[in-house]
Amino acid sequence: MKKNYLLLDKIEGSLIELSNLHHVSYDEVVEIKTRDGKKSMVGTVVKVDEDKATIQVFGDLLGSSTKNMEVTFEARPFEIPLTDEVLGRVFDGLGRPIDKGGEIYADKFYNVNGRPINPVARLYPRNFIQTGISAIDALMTLIRGQKLPIFSGSGLPHNELAAQIVRQAKISNASGEDNFAIVFAAIGVKHDEADYFREEFNNAGVSENVVMYVNYADDPIMERLIVPKCALTCAEYLAYECNKHVLVIMTDITSYGEALREVSSSREEVPSRKGYPGHLYSDLAMLYERAGMIKGIDGSVTLIPILTMPNDDITHPIPDLTGYITEGQIVLSRDLHGSGIYPPINVLPSLSRLMKDGIGEGYTREDHADLSSQLFASYSKVQEVRALSQIIGREDLSDSDKKILDFGDEFEKKFLRQRFDENRNIEETLDLGWELLKILPEESLDRIDPELKKKYLNRKVEDNKETHEEVETQSKDNK
Description:
alpha/beta; ATPase_F1/V1/A1_a/bsu_nucl-bd; proton-transporting ATP synthase activity, rotational mechanism; elongated; transport; 21 strands; ATPase_a/bsu_AS; 479 residues
């Protein structure tokens, strides 16, 4: 039952305090409007203490008074209407259409707060998602139902990478392209960034399979805490009720953390590391753990949160806690970006913890695991030899070390680097990896099964050897 209150105790920033309340619930939706009807906003109950409550408002309370406001408790949580018609639409941070496509009319409304998936009901992720980006597909494979964040920094091309993944992402062994959808959440972005994503999706012809939730940098900061919840609620609906495989991309989770810190400070909560609230970990976990697969349901929710690390500090609370909750990370490198390499993925600190169970025969290709391990080990050796060459010079290196340096240069130029519109399938990526390993001495390839080495590497080496022998025989005959 709705309840109206006309007398407020206190207004401070975006918070309203009331007392003498009856049957008010945490997370309950509240409508706030001036008595003349000129201003109307929405808020939620963020604190309940006996007959007192604190309301967080999604809007600007500047100039408002405790005596000219009317507060109505809606007796329901924050909900959004959802149907399969949301595909191809653009919504604001509160789930309201902003694309001039009209309102969404649905028979059912869904609570945006949701709940993490029960571990007992979870289905272990197996099938991989092909992004068309060699570094990701081969070395840190994205698995359907996984949570794999991208750790970036200010000025790095994480937006371009996100747009490329949306355009190229393809579910392995999915029953048709119509079964695949993408939910994109932009948190605290500039207007030109939001326009960039819209144009990219339209130009690529994928906008009909994309649902966008956009919170601009000049929108109320409290909305940034709702955007990811709206996006995940929509993804859950498409996955578990429409049986679609949904890829959720969020940018930028750092904006979410900053908003959480500001709201926590206004509520006078005790701060933790770097001023962030102590419940930052549980807040992030409640978002990330909503991704996954459920037994008995065909659909899935795969999550790629993108966050910019302040001062490129991977030990900052937001990336640090994100790394604990999720199943790996993709780290972007400022040095590679400065060298003109796109996408500038730093291979060594990047990993996918679910990769081992979603690759190999029946998923990608039988040689994937061994090839990935060898590429990773060889590129790790490149960093050691590069450090040594800076001390003694390249000329004084051994021949094997020089080959390692050559491998590192070619790996970055041919394997890591690719065009923004280049979409490599998994076969092309793995074949390219084998071509690069030919630069190294065969005895150094100690992480590959001999049978696989013979099948994918020695075969071509032997063919070249036979050709070379034929040329030598012909030259002797001519002499």
